[in-house]
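HUMAN: Now follow token order:
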Amino acid sequence: MKGTWIRITDIFSLHMLHCMYGDIVEYLRLNYMKFAWAIATVLLVYTIYRLLIGFIKRKGQELELEPHIRNIIRLLLRVVAIVIATTTVFNIFELPTNVFLGSSALIGAALGFGSSQTINNIVAGFYVLLTQPFKVKDYVRIADLEGQVEEISINYTNLYTPTFNLLKVPNTQVMNSKILNMTHEGYIKYTFKVNFGHELTEKQVMESIIKPAIEDFHDNCVNGEFRCPEAYMDVVDRLGKTYMIRLFIPKGEARTLYTMLPELTRLIMRKYDDVRAVK
């Protein structure tokens, strides 16, 4: 009896599959033109989208548009292309608007539950692109990270760091952090601190150490091509004196900064050793 019931169930299942297969085939036969139009529409929209992206890339290079502006235009084009393709496909299959809205709500809920971090990054990316706290090739410090901005995308801001590596910083972190932009008037204005004890007077530090080191650096290391570094005393306390040294490196030349900074520090330390040796 049990074997008979299993055979009946198998037969019923096969019958249902056969009916479903027949219904699918019949539906495809009756609507094959709609599927053809839908596929043709998607391909046409995608082709136009790729052509426009190529046009924007060429024109952006000709007009010397900022890379972040080109990113915004590409993103808007992508959104428009998706909306046009989706709307056209829904019209071809004569689907009601509430289906479109329901599908959007389901997709939105799925994205919200499954990819909240990605969505937050995208929203933050829009914020960074629109508010422009910095631009590509600016030298910035984001919280405890610093480097030259190489690219601003929807998800990440890419920094070229002092370790000569490329660091991807999530845009949510960018949006929620303090940002110091050190690029002004065509220069990276990079300031660092140097400390000296009270065994040397302020005049000895400035006249015998810092100024000679800066002069040697400007004349020999950069051959007078860059703006001369500046120095001033910042803080005096019971432990010693702190001086601020400011370097001026042309915008976009972070590699030069990473090379020149240790060189200037080395010259300052050499002058300091010379003064101490005389004493």
